[in-house]
Design a protein that fits this description.
The chain is mainly alpha-helical and 95 residues long. The chain has a single domain, classed as Recoverin, domain 1 (Orthogonal Bundle). Helices cover 48% and strands 4% of the residues. A two-stranded antiparallel ribbon has the order 1-2. Helix 1 packs across helix 3. It is elongated and about 40 Å long. The protein starts with a helix and ends with a helix. 20% of the residues are buried.
Length: 95
C-alpha cells in the first residue's frame, strides 16, 4: 500500500527495514506504534507488520462508512496488488 511505504520511509530513519529504537522517533510514539503493530513482540515493526496495521485501520474506517474491506497481502516486504485500496490522495480527501 502506498501509505505503508510512506510511513516506513518516514519512520525507518536507520534504513534497516524496521521501525525500532534506532530510528529518530520519539519514545511515546514508538511505544504506541509497537503496541499496535508489533505482531511478533520483538520490539520492532517490519514493513509487513506495519502494512497489516495500516490495513486493519483502513478496514475499520471503511466499516464505519459502510464500505467493504480492502484486501492486500504482504510478502517479502512488498505487495503486488491491493484490491479496493485507498491511496494517499484518497486518504487526504477523506480526512
Amino acid at each position: 500500500m502506498e501509505y505503508t511505504e510512506y510511513l516506513m520511509d518516514y519512520y525507518d530513519t536507520s534504513s534497516d527495514s524496521m521501525i525500532n529504537p534506532e530510528d529518530l522517533i520519539d519514545e511515546e510514539h514508538y511505544e504506541e506504534l509497537v503496541g499496535m503493530c508489533d505482531q511478533n513482540f520483538d520490539g520492532s515493526v517490519s514493513f509487513c507488520e506495519l502494512h497489516d496495521c495500516v490495513l486493519a485501520a483502513e478496514n475499520a474506517w471503511r466499516a464505519e462508512c459502510g464500505m467493504g474491506d480492502a484486501y492486500c497481502t504482504c510478502g517479502n516486504d512488498s505487495y503486488e496488488y491491493c484490491e479496493y485500496e485507498w491511496n494517499c490522495l484518497d486518504i487526504m480527501n477523506l480526512t
